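Lab meeting, item 3. Inverse folding demo.
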């Protein structure tokens, strides 16, 4: 792994952690959601300090270079997070739809009671 990539990963790790901590302090992100990003930045930091484990994985899988492997792993992790967010979003949309239907039924019943 080139020294430049290692420095970029370390800087990216610290910036990610700082940004997430700032958002948590402002109340713009929940702590349980921020855990993923803190772990992600920890992965970046460990990868930049100890790239040997990825070198072995790169040779085992047959990826051309270590840099490609780093980006492949990062893309995979982010796609996995995106999938989990899609699941959460679908559940929330279902809950919102159910709540809206309940409110509409209550207002409809109240409207009938007012007419009588």
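The presenter then showed the designed sequence:
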């Amino acid at each position: 792994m080139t020294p430049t990539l290692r420095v970029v990963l370390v800087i990216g790790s610290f910036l990610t952690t700082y940004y997430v901590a700032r958002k948590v302090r402002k109340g713009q992100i929940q702590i349980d959601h921020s855990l993923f990003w803190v772990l992600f930045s920890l992965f970046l930091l460990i990868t930049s300090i100890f790239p040997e484990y990825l070198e072995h994985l790169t040779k085992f899988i047959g990826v051309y270079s270590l840099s490609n492997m780093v980006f492949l792993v990062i893309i995979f992790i982010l796609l996995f997070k995106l999938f989990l967010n899609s699941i959460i979003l679908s559940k929330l949309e279902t809950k919102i739809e159910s709540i809206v239907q309940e409110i509409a039924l209550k207002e409809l019943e109240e409207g009938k009671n007012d007419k009588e």
